[in-house]
Amino acid sequence: MNKKRGFTLVELLVVIAIIALLMSILMPALARVRVQAKVVICQSNLRQWGAIFSMYTADNNSSFQEGWDTVGTSNWWMDSTKPYYSAGVANEMGGSEIFFCPAAANRDKKVADGHVNFGIWDDRWLDNKGYEGSYGINGWVENKVKDREYPEMAPKRWRTDRVSGAAQVPLFMDAPWIDAWPEHFDEPPDLDNVDWRWQPESHMSRFCKDRHNGYIDILFLDYTVRKIGLKEMWLLKWNRSTELDGEWTTEGGVDPGDWPDWMQGFKNY
Prior knowledge:
The protein contains 4 helices and 7 strands, in the order H-H-H-H-E-E-E-E-E-E-E.
């Protein structure tokens, strides 16, 4: 009678070695797929926000909300757009998940006052209405009727989505805080994961975070979404007075070695 023959030790070791080799080949590919999936989800969220802001402006004479105000009550984008994402639109677009980029830090890693280094913000520092997310608005698009404390800001505001060159005007994007007013002369943040309050004079530091391997996702004023290199952010038209050859660009005289260490390896534009 023939005996059943099993695998020898050598054969088992060969099979294990082949499996290990295949895993070493597949794991980097799977990691890249996971990273790309986060980018796709993030961009999908921003497109959905594009639809929400488009509906809001269509119902408000093409104008955006007033936004932050140090005098009186602020009209945050979370409040002004709520009728559009809470009355059926949110369910179709993923509910509260459209507030979160999947590449942002875990939402459990918030700090006590609502500010974070890298990922999720909440509004405990503001009106404490329970809002939280990982996207922020370009404050220059908001339609501030009276710039009482900072009247010099008024001429720089876009206020509406009907502007020339809208494809270069950032509207809404990856951010660890709800808003910012970037200028082309703002210095980049010294560190990637530093709280933006360490450089309060640089509003660009609120948006310049490495969420997508040297890029962030931005919804523009023409309601298109693009992945933008972090250094490329200084070439965008943030407000009406911004020039495209700002201080922190090659055209503006910045040497590649002037960028912070954590940005050195990123593409120059």
